[in-house]
Design brief:
By secondary structure, this protein is α+β, with helices and mostly antiparallel strands. It has 2 domains: 81 residues, Muramoyl-pentapeptide Carboxypeptidase, domain 1 (Orthogonal Bundle), CATH 1.10.101.10; 114 residues, 2-Layer Sandwich (Muramoyl-pentapeptide Carboxypeptidase, domain 2), CATH 3.30.1380. The chain contains 8 helices and 4 strands, in the order H-H-H-H-H-E-H-E-H-E-H-E. The model has no long low-confidence stretch (mean pLDDT 95).
């Protein structure tokens, strides 16, 4: 049976859950159980039993097959990024290669969200200078070793990058990234000299 975090990931992927992936069965999680049960003809009791578990896994596997990813029944990073990337491909990216976003530990994790890469492409175009990705995807182990990094970092889900723009002060890069936050295409941006060496962080939902 799926653990609570896996249930929350699956229910969020399907649009039933909007809360944190925290492994806590609160009101939001129970409500998501009930909505899912109602839509799929199950007993609506808010209890996550074997029938609800089997149906949730079945539905996610069907979605994964459509997306062409491993059908393991858990909507993790690769599955969610594959969905988000449906309308984009690396052919739409002008300045970056997938390898630039791979986890620095060498584990091979490089499932970057192309919506984020498209923003970085636009930043590169705007400044007319090369952009260096100082940190893209991070596996959980590598992330845990980064000073000041959150265990819930969006680097782990391929939805964050730290960047430097050649010959451009970080304050200007940060100001440009804030425009993307303001228009809703990015979630958050910041810079921190102590931990980031003048790089600017930008991430998406």
């Amino acid at each position: 049976m799926l653990n609570v975090k896996q249930r929350q990931m699956n229910l969020r992927f399907l649009g039933y859950y909007g809360g944190a992936i925290d492994g806590i069965v609160g009101n939001g999680t129970i409500s998501a159980y009930e909505q899912f049960q109602r839509d799929y003809g199950l007993t609506v009791d808010g209890i996550y039993g074997p029938k609800t578990d089997a149906k949730l896994i079945e539905v996610i596997k069907a979605e994964q097959v459509k997306l062409g990813v491993n059908a393991d029944g858990i909507a993790g990073t690769i599955t969610t990024n594959a969905r988000d990337n449906q309308n984009l491909s690396w052919n739409d990216i002008k300045y970056f290669k997938k390898s630039e976003f791979a986890c620095k530990c060498g584990c091979g994790f490089d499932s970057i969200n192309l919506k984020l890469v498209k923003i970085l492409d636009e930043i590169r175009e705007y400044f007319g200078q090369p952009v260096t990705v100082t940190s893209g995807c991070r596996c959980a182990n590598h992330n845990s070793k980064q000073k000041g990094s959150s265990p819930n970092s969006r680097h782990i889900s391929g939805k964050a990058s730290d960047i430097k723009v050649k010959n451009v002060d970080k304050s200007r890069v940060l100001a440009k990234c804030k425009e993307y936050v303001s228009n809703g295409r990015a979630r958050y941006t910041y810079t921190n000299n102590t931990n980031m060496g003048n790089a600017v962080h930008i991430d998406i939902q």
